[in-house]
Known about the structure:
The chain is of the alpha+beta class. It is built from 11 helices and 26 strands. Strands 14-15-13-11-19-20-10-21 form an 8-stranded antiparallel β-sheet, with helices on one face. Strands 1-2-6-3-7-24 form a 6-stranded mixed β-sheet, sandwiched between helices.
Amino acid sequence: MLKNQLAEYFAIHRQDMIDDISALIAIQSDRQDPLPGKPYGEGPAACLDKALAIASRMGFATKNYDYYVGAVDFSDAETELDILAHLDVVPVGDGWTVTEPFTPKLVGTKLYGRGSNDDKGPAVAALYAMKALKDLGVELKKNVRLIVGCDEECGSSDIAHYYAIEKEAPCTFSPDAEFPVINTEKGAFQGRYSASFAEDKALPRIVSVDAGTKINIVPDKCISVIEGMTAAELASYLEEAAAATGAAFTAAEKDGLVEITCKGYSAHASTPDRGNNAITASLTLLSMLPIADSEGYRALLAMDRLFPHGDWYGEAAGIAMCDEISGKLTNTLDIFHYTLTSLEGATDCRASLCATDENLTDVIRKNTEDLGLTLDPACALREPHHVPAESPFVQTLLKVYEQYTGKKGEPIAIGGGTYAHHLKNGVAFGCTFPWSEDNHMHGDNEFVEMDELLLCAQMFAQVIADICG
Ligand SMILES: [Zn+2]
């Protein structure tokens, strides 16, 4: 049967696959300034050329969509399945110890190098799945097309370009996340709040508050500057706020002001309960202090009322919701800046499938305005994404997963957005298994476990045979 043939095929072609992944890792393909005809610069374009050359060598027809994406076709039959992977990578840090990021190195069964896991290894696994079916003489009635993008990490403008030209296949999976199958992705609402006010000289007053750099990261540090109180006068409040929030506060006097540092810990915005938000902890403290009444202080208190510490589900903001498939909405205030005349905050909200602009955007806008703050009029919900678990496509993926791993396959819902988010019948399928070791994706010493990737390739081949055969 096909399963045994595939196991044998990939045992023989293991080294070929390692060589081809290594050739792609060696080409640094993080996004650079555009060049004429190369929208993401030299690296992603060179990597696409290399990938398409590998596919041509295998005997497949390829097409380059202006260096935004490339496509590899199994045959010229009508396409039933698209596989969506990417060749661009995130920039590298300086903590690599196993090898240099663009010098692939095999250590035992792990292949190290930037992009090995995200997403060059999976792209090559999909290509080899096509090649295996071809070499084994498996006949497909319909075409499978591998699409390799060059801008997944910086906003997916690559596939926007592609789908402006080509239509979506009846089924699409992207091997750029996790197994078994991600068929539900929450909606996203990024709120930007602001207020401006006249400077008030009455003391004590808050001179500044600053925290957060990225909207999707729960901040672990927040600095507040107070005028008109001493560190000694603040001490008991810091203790009280630490007890209430679990965050750590320290105060230091500096040029007649007191600088308070709040330390919490960070987490991804889709799982705010795993962190301890230093902004909301600081707002808890600031709301306890005997600050002189002012328009600015009232705006700051309004932020504390809307986003109180530990309210991960948008209850105070009036947007708490939940459904059985995607779970609870989450909401977290991740960027905050306060000066003597202005306030700005940004939240990252991951909304349940039941979210709409009516029950989310309109509600939080009203609650914000009632408290005297402004929500940027451009803020709107990015629709959630869901492909029903009962659909034949998702059922096929789950069946193959069970057949090849011997484990129960359940579809999963996530708060983040994958490459397949905007596709009507698109899901994420692999390549991280529930039991995979941390592969340092986006970090130093990124690697792919070749034993797992070879299993992925066999699963992809089976899926292609089942869907296009
Ligand atoms: Zn990726």
